[in-house]
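User: Modeling request: complex.
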Amino acid sequence: MTGDDRISADFAALARRARDRVPPLVATLAKLATPAEFPATLPRFVLERAYVHRVARGAGGAMALACLAALLVFLGVVEPNLGGGAYGGWPEQLVYGHKALVAIALLCAVLVVHLVASRIAERRFERASVRVDPLQLVTGVDAWTTVLAVAGAMASVLVFGMLFVIVGDHSFEQLVIDESWRPLRPSTFGMLVVLIVAALVGGWFAMRRVLVERPMAIFAGFVVLLVVASFGLRFDNGCLGEHYRHMYFEEAVTTTPPPPDAIRIAMTIIGTFAVYLVVGGMFARARRRELAEVAHRG
Amino acid sequence: VDARRERFARLIEPLHDRVVGFARCLCRSTADGDDLFQEAMVRAFAKLDGLRDDAAFRRWLYRIVVSVHRTRSRRAFWRRLLPLAEVTEDTGVDYRSESNPGDVAASRRARTALARLPAVQREAIVLFEIEDWQIDEIAALQRVSTSAVKSRLARGRARLRALYDEAPAPAVPAAAGETP
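Assistant: Request completed. Predicted assembly structure:
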């Protein structure tokens, strides 16, 4: 028997076996359901979990937006020299020149709110589901939690992207520190507000239309983010990390000149768009998983 | 919704067993095949209103199965890192067959070899060799030219031949759960 004969014989056996013990058509039809057909009495824990996750995501996004608004006011009105270097002792040293700490504080705040909102949502679901259809509760919070979650994540990246990538910490040195703070001047501050609003609108449409059908956009966004971050680091640390060579090896190097404003702003916009794809896609997937689980349990 | 369900039931009835078999042949295990089939059915049912010509239902349905298969293949890329022996087991579900042990071993051999092909080649091979589709039908389903399908079939067959040469029949024992 030749190799081709063996393959054909094995395929014939596979075909016979694949059609062996096929589930009946009735069983196939019984498992079909569309969202409109979800029964009102789905298992409560499935709906509760979807509800709690959605509310927690929305609350986390809202907290991020609130913190960022406070941060922008702080930087724009009270103390614009967050990245200006730490020359004092503790606690000044802890705050000034340590933008990463601000980012970590924001992350902690978001996580705490996420946890607290989860607990509150659990209790609210317990109480409200007695008098309101639980499925209606879940679908009722879908819109605003989605928008808040995506907008919070995007706004965080927009602001911290600007602080880390555009303003930078070290590379522009004192010579250009004033120039590097230009994006925080009132006109650019207004642009940030416009962009955050645009993020809200864009996030909504991304969640609803595009990313649900095209999860590959998530990966595309991730790649764009990496590229933008790489360029940002190149500007921040100087070409081939010359800033660090200068700092640690005391080599005499020429500091990389700051990039033009247009490039820095474009980098922020592109980076934000990338995050909008990544984060929006992640939330879209989480939402789709919830829907699939609800459909499956139903 | 009832009308849609009735229409779907009427259209799927003559094809049901064949499509289940097709889905099972595409996957590494019978359980995976049944999952693929059910996922494709849910998607087909949801999109049924978009199908205007009932005569095109067969190709439309197979295209959905193929589409879901591609998605699942991409999603489960990490499974390529696992030994084939682990992922071809029909674990957890009682799929003990009425068929003879020879069929079990042969189908397992075929499934193991098919699992090593790229998804597009696997689809073309299964449609052509097992489902008896014509090349132009496969081309329309995969949305490629007939020459591309011929190329996929030739490459897939060559790869299968090489795999069979590497692992002769006695070297692949039947899985414990598959013996009748």
